[in-house]
Each structure stands twice: as structure tokens, then as C-alpha cells.
């Protein structure tokens, strides 16, 4: 029997290679089989009837975080949304999220409300570059990412490893340069989708050093979601820098959500470092002071963090730092140290001034 690769079928049917692989694994293409590590398809197979075309229009739906990010808040949304003030208080028309990370709360708010002004920032410049490129250069970004996806999915594991390491090296090379912003954003997404656990970790020299993950069919280019995200970001002010730069944006019409890096539960907890910078107890206390300053300006504020009482009942670090605010303890499942086996239900803090 004459067989063709998934890549050849993708090009013949004008759909993505990933879609061909999904159709094969769903048993939708008679005679498709795995040879080595890859799917092969009888030449002359018919394109399954519902195969999406490459240029499918954006389907309606909600924009979702486009990266997996440490400390992502998707599972706490139900608790955090109780605080959204927009429906109850029409005077609040602005939103600021100065530690945006993957933006779980940002996208939830952008999906639910039409706001007059939105401000996001993060100290991680590669992350912020990705937000800006998605907002301003979505077509070019998708073109590059699709190329990466097709290339990666057509390879066996050893070949994938080589490509992964080459892309990681290229990412580190571009990190230090200021040009090639689209390529850098595409590499950021590619690495996030193919690395171990979606981690972002750098070594002392500031080089991204996460090894390859073990995903069989990673969705590297989620075109529909990227286009939805791009649409939602059109009027968002996106800033690379310290959270304190948000001060001039924030006023009595603003809802602010602060999600800083967690205070480690134990001194030995091997905590994920997001950037070259650290966020120690001194930084946590500075943030608490900043919250008080914004409180005086009349902003509506929510901040989240880990509850030190998970490890030590007598640790009142945040109760003392935020003695003028309300503190709600909510239950969450999260990785409590670097060993992913040790996931458990623990409390998190939701601190608010209203
Ligand atoms: C817990 S994560 C935020 C997670 C986010 N809420 C989500 O759903 O993905 C904290 C973020 O703060 C950023 N960060 C660390 N120090 C910062 C600073 N001084 N100013 C602004 N952002 C900072 C990190 O790069 C990281 O993305």
C-alpha cells in the first residue's frame, strides 16, 4: 500500500498536521497506522468530512490564557470573581493587573465586561513581548508558530529533542537582543507548550534552561484562542516593568488585582523562579504598603498569596502586613513543593480593601 506522512496529508487536505494526528488517533482515517513514532496514512484516503480548513474564521468563545504559568489562577476564579466590583458599582470602569503572568483573571474579566481602560504589567520581558506581539502582529505570529508546530509534530522523539534544544538556544540568543520580537514570541509559546510542565525558569546567567517535556501531541498553535486573545487585548495598555509603575494609572475608578510571586511556605521549598529577580519578604511588605497607598486613592483592591499558616499556625506575616484589610482564607489544590507528587488542598489568602 502506498502510504503518506501526516505532514503530507495535512498539506494535501489544507488542514494542520496536528488535526491530521488527532483524526488518526480518533480512528477517523481508515488504514492510518503508527510506524515508528509517526502516523502514516494510505495515499488516496479521503479527507474526513468535518476537517477544519486552515483559515477557519475565529469561532466565538472566551479568550483563555495562552501560556501555562506558575501560580496560574484558573482554579481560584470562582472565589476571585466574587470580588469583581463592575456590576455592583458602575463607577468602576478601569482594571489593573500589575503581576499579570498568564492572565487567568485578566481574560475572565475581559470576557465578562466591557471596560474603559485596562492596564497589565509584568517584570518578565519575554512574557510581555508575547502579549504585545499577540496584540499587534497576530497574523505573522500564527504563521511562524504553525511552521514550528508542523515541523515538531512530524518528528520522532530524538529529533524533537534536537529541535527543542536548538529553539531554546535561539530563544536565549534573542532574549538579549531587542529585535526579532515576533520570532521571540513564537519561541516563548513553543517552549511553554513543549517544555517540562510549562515551567519558566532561568539560570544565574538569565538563560532559560527548562528541559523538554513528554507531550505526545502538544497544541503549539491554538490559532482560535490566539485570535480571541488578540481581539481582547486591542485596547489594553501592556507594560514591561515593576508593579509600582501602575501607580499613575490607578485611581478611584479602578479595580486592581495583585498576584505577586507566592511567599514560599517553608524556607526550603524549592520555589520556581519566574525571572532573574526574587520576591522576598521585604518585597512582600513593600507591596502591602503600596496597597495601603492605593487604598487611600479610593481604588478597589484584591491581592492573593499563599497562607503561611499552612506550614506554621503561628505565622502571622500577612495578617500583620495587611492588618487594615480583610483577609479571606480559601481552599485550593496546588503544588506545595518542587515534587509534583506532593499536591494537596491548602489555604490561599484573598486580601481585599472592600
Ligand atoms: C503568581 S505569578 C502571576 C500569575 C497570574 N495571576 C496567572 O494567573 O497566571 C506572579 C508574576 O509576577 C511577576 N513579577 C515578579 N516580580 C514582579 C515585579 N516586581 N513587578 C511586576 N511583576 C513581577 C512574575 O514574572 C510572575 O509572572
Structural description of this entry:
With 354 residues, the chain is α/β, with parallel strands linked by helices. It folds into 3 domains: 3-42; 74-123 and 241-352, 3-Layer(aba) Sandwich (Rossmann fold), CATH 3.40.50.150; 132-221, Adenine-specific Methyltransferase, Domain 2 (Adenine-specific Methyltransferase, domain 2), CATH 1.10.1020.10. It is built from 11 helices and 10 strands. It has a 7-stranded mixed β-sheet with strand order 6-5-4-7-8-10-9, sandwiched between helices. Strand 9 (326-335) and strand 10 (343-352) form a beta hairpin. Helix 5 (125-136) packs across helix 9 (223-233). 34% of the residues are buried. S-adenosylmethionine is lined by residues 69, 71-73, 98-99, 101-104, 121-124, 242-243, 259-261, 274-275, 277, 279.
Q: What tags apply to this protein structure?
A:
single chain, 354 residues, alpha/beta, Rossmann fold, Adenine-specific Methyltransferase, domain 2, 3 domains, three-stranded antiparallel sheet, 16% strand, binds S-adenosylmethionine
Amino acid at each position: 500500500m502506498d502510504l503518506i506522512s501526516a505532514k503530507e496529508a495535512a498539506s494535501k487536505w489544507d488542514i494542520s498536521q496536528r488535526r491530521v494526528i488527532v483524526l488518526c488517533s480518533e480512528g477517523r482515517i481508515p488504514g492510518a497506522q503508527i510506524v515508528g513514532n509517526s502516523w502514516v496514512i494510505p495515499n488516496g484516503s479521503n479527507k474526513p468530512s468535518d476537517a477544519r480548513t486552515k483559515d477557519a474564521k475565529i469561532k466565538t468563545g472566551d479568550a483563555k490564557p495562552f501560556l501555562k504559568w506558575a501560580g496560574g489562577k484558573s482554579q481560584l476564579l470562582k472565589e476571585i470573581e466574587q470580588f469583581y466590583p463592575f456590576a455592583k458599582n458602575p463607577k468602576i470602569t478601569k482594571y489593573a493587573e500589575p503581576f499579570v503572568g498568564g492572565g487567568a483573571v485578566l481574560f475572565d474579566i475581559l470576557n465578562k465586561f466591557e471596560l474603559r481602560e485596562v492596564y497589565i504589567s509584568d517584570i518578565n520581558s519575554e512574557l510581555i513581548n508575547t502579549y504585545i506581539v499577540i496584540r499587534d502582529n497576530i497574523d505573522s505570529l500564527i504563521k511562524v508558530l504553525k511552521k514550528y508546530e508542523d515541523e515538531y509534530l512530524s518528528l520522532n522523539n530524538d529529533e524533537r529533542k534536537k529541535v527543542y534544544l536548538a529553539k531554546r538556544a535561539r530563544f536565549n540568543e534573542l532574549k538579549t537582543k531587542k529585535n526579532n520580537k515576533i520570532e521571540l514570541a513564537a519561541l516563548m509559546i513553543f517552549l511553554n507548550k513543549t517544555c517540562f510542565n510549562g515551567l519558566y525558569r532561568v539560570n544565574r546567567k538569565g538563560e532559560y534552561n527548562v528541559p523538554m517535556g513528554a507531550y505526545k501531541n502538544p497544541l503549539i498553535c491554538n490559532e482560535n484562542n490566539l485570535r480571541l486573545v488578540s481581539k481582547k487585548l486591542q485596547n489594553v495598555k501592556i507594560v514591561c516593568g515593576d508593579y509600582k509603575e501602575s501607580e499613575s494609572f490607578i485611581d478611584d475608578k479602578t479595580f486592581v488585582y495583585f498576584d505577586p510571586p507566592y511567599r514560599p511556605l517553608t524556607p526550603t521549598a524549592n520555589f520556581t523562579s519566574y525571572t532573574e529577580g526574587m520576591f522576598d519578604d521585604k518585597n512582600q511588605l513593600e507591596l502591602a504598603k503600596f496597597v495601603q497607598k492605593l487604598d487611600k486613592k479610593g481604588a478597589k483592591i484584591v491581592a492573593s498569596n499563599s497562607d503561611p499558616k499552612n506550614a506554621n499556625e503561628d505565622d502571622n506575616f500577612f495578617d500583620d502586613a495587611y492588618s487594615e484589610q480583610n483577609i479571606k482564607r480559601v481552599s485550593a489544590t496546588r503544588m506545595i513543593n518542587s515534587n509534583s507528587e506532593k499536591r494537596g488542598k491548602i489555604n490561599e489568602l484573598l486580601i481585599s480593601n472592600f
